[in-house]
């Protein structure tokens, strides 16, 4: 199966039910490569600038000229091998895809702000044209137009080498005091280097009885090289039917203030006045969603602030 076929199969995979175990990837970071001789470190130091220069070229290309495609034909000349070249393209495509997504979200927010500005400006001009306010009407201040600042393309400043099984291989050590041996392809074709990896007690406990993934990353921080490994884990959903919705209540409480500035276009949120009203509306919607999907509705716990809000007589519009 080709890489494109595998990618298409992942996209067409059936979505999991809410009660099925979740497949997540965890990382063990900051594994320092301390027992490496100077020659092997020099080989990594020679490889990194060449690799990152190529990666930066593809990042700029994918951000400005073409949609990210990690499987496209190679575009630039490089002393790296074809496999290492492909890994650099995959890393650049991931960076560019994230950048494009964040920029699109920021542009969408700007367009919403522009619509709100036009509405507020029309209301301001209408009140100004009347020359006088009606009884109880508040004065509308002249709104400030939002400004769009074009995003800069990403610049790779830190040394980070992402690898897969084609250019690096992590194997358990069997006849030495080290825990693993990392074989890495370098600029010298046919002459890979073997780097010893010694885990700290924390990493040994975290990776105990875990099957590591084939992809690893090498980072250089403060003149030292660090290794990051990942492993997959299935997390079972084990929520009791009568469990309280404390996490969602905290989430609603945290985001109530944010929703104050994002409620334009939502009539229910627009009718709410204050943080408590928005929080209550979010909780009611969550409870309705649980009933719709067959989950038990949790008992409501009223805080002092909520009791004061209910006693004040302010109503909510669903």
Report the span from N to C terminus: 51 Å
Mean pLDDT across the residues is: 82
Beta percentage is: 15-25%
Residues in helix, %: 40-55%
Unreliable runs: 309-318
- The largest sheet has its strands arranged as 1-7-6-2
Main sheet attributes: strand count, strand direction, barrel closure: 4 strands, antiparallel
Q: Which structural class best describes the helix and strand composition?
A: alpha+beta
How many distinct beta strands?
7
Shape: extended
Q: List SSEs in N-to-C order.
A: HEHHEEEEHEEHHHH
| Number of alpha- plus pi-helical segments | 8
Radius of gyration: 28 Å
Characterize this entry briefly.
With 318 residues, this protein is of the alpha+beta class. It has helices at residues 3-11, 38-64, 82-130, 201-206, 246-260, 267-270, 275-292, 304-311, and strands spanning 22-32, 159-163, 168-172, 180-184, 193-197, 212-221, 224-235.
Structural description of this entry:
By secondary structure, this protein is an alpha+beta fold. The chain has a domain at 246-305. It contains eight helices and seven strands, in the order αβααββββαββαααα. The strands form two sheets. A four-stranded antiparallel beta sheet has the order 1-7-6-2. It has a three-stranded antiparallel beta sheet with strand order 3-4-5, with no helix packed on it. Helix 5 crosses helix 7. The protein is extended, with a radius of gyration of 28 Å. The two termini are 51 Å apart.
Give the SSE layout.
Elements lengths: L2 H9 L10 E11 L5 H27 L17 H49 L28 E5 L4 E5 L7 E5 L8 E5 L3 H6 L5 E10 L2 E12 L10 H15 L6 H4 L4 H18 L11 H8 L7
Antiparallel strand pairs: 1-7, 2-6, 3-4, 4-5, 6-7
Helix pairs in contact: 2-3, 5-7
């Amino acid at each position: 199966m080709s890489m494109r076929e595998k990618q298409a199969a992942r996209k067409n995979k059936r979505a999991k039910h809410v009660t099925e175990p979740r497949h997540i990837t965890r990382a063990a970071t900051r594994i320092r490569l301390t027992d490496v001789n100077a020659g092997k470190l020099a080989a990594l130091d020679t490889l990194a600038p060449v690799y990152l220069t190529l990666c930066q070229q593809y990042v700029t290309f994918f951000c400005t000229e073409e949609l990210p495609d990690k499987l496209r034909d190679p575009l630039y000349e490089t002393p790296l091998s074809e496999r290492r070249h492909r890994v650099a393209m995959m890393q650049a495509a991931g960076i560019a895809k994230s950048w494009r997504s964040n920029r699109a979200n920021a542009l969408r927010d700007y367009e919403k702000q522009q619509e709100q500005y036009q509405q507020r400006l029309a209301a301001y001009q209408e009140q100004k044209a009347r020359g006088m306010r009606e009884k109880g009407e508040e004065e509308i201040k002249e709104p400030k137009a939002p400004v769009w600042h074009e995003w800069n393309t990403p610049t790779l400043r830190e040394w980070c080498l992402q690898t897969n099984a084609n250019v690096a291989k992590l194997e358990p050590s069997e006849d030495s005091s080290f825990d693993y041996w990392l074989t890495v392809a370098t600029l010298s074709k046919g002459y890979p280097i073997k780097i010893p990896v010694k885990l700290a007690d924390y990493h040994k406990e975290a990776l105990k009885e875990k099957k590591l993934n084939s992809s690893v990353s090498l980072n250089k921080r403060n003149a030292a090289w660090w290794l990051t490994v990942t492993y997959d884990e299935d997390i079972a959903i084990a929520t009791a039917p009568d469990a309280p919705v404390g996490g969602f209540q905290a989430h609603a409480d945290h985001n109530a203030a944010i929703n104050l500035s994002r409620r334009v276009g939502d009539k229910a949120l627009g009718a709410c006045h204050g943080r408590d009203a928005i929080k209550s509306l979010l909780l009611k919607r969550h409870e309705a969603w649980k009933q719709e999907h067959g989950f038990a509705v949790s008992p409501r716990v009223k805080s002092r602030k909520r009791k004061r809000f209910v006693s004040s007589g302010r109503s909510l519009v669903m």
